[in-house]
Amino acid sequence: MTLRSIIHYPDNRLRQLCPEHTCFDDSLKNLVSDMFETMYHEKGIGLSAIQINVITRVITIDVSKEQNQRLTLINPVIIDRREPIVFDEGCLSVPGFYEKVDRFNYIKYEATDIDGNKFVSEATELLAVCIQHEIDHLDGKLFVDYLSDMKRSKIQKGLIKQNNNNSDIQRKENPYIK
Ligand code: QAP
Ligand code: CO
């Protein structure tokens, strides 16, 4: 188990279209275990592999209060959606910002589990919204894309400031930042 670092908006690496995941082996189990560890550590309810710079269609979710109901979705596809709702969303890649987004309150979806078995399931409310949000990540999409230009640029400005202030990587690699 290893904590991985999360890529923050507006990093362009979050804009890639992730290809289907094809290999159901120990390296997948290792990836999923690192994703849960990182997600719990950062107090998240959902994480997509692309957020830790692994470009493949793998998602980890746990929306339970006790943080003990792990859901791993590989190559998930929504096959039915009903009941539009507006949901106040955040994202581990957009830390500190929350905005209302149009989603669906019910989805039916298919996915593959960690052992490579395909299944169909349904979700409502927070879990349904979380799955919609995470599948967007796999297509290079972020919740900020649904916002007005003004709201999005305010968030972008705030995060660029944050990233410059607290990034050890930038400090080490960029001699111009003191
Ligand atoms: C996506 O988001 C989601 O800003 C998962 O400072 C969010 O886990 C789906 C988080 C809401 C449905 C509804 C965000 C943690 C976690 C932050 C997350 C932060 C710390 C976000
Ligand atoms: Co997110």
Structural class: alpha+beta
Bound compounds, each kind once, are:
2-phenylethyl (2E)-3-(3,4-dihydroxyphenyl)prop-2-enoate, cobalt (II) ion
Number of strands: 5
What portion of residues is helical? 25-40%
Key terms for this structure?
178 residues, binds cobalt (II) ion, alpha+beta
Report on the structure:
With 178 residues, the protein is α+β, with helices and mostly antiparallel strands. The chain has 4 helices and 5 strands. It has helices at 26-41, 125-138, 149-166, 168-173, and strands at 46-48, 58-61, 71-89, 99-112, 118-124. The protein is globular, with a radius of gyration of 17 Å. Residues 174-178 have low confidence and may be disordered. The site of cobalt (II) ion has 5 residues, from helix 2.
Short description:
With 178 residues, the chain is α+β, with helices and mostly antiparallel strands.
Blueprint (SSEs and pairs):
Elements: H1 26-41, E1 46-48, E2 58-61, E3 71-89, E4 99-112, E5 118-124, H2 125-138, H3 149-166, H4 168-173
Antiparallel strand pairs: 1-2, 2-3, 3-4, 4-5
The structure holds 2-phenylethyl (2E)-3-(3,4-dihydroxyphenyl)prop-2-enoate and cobalt (II) ion.
Cobalt (II) ion is lined by residues 91-93, 133, 137.
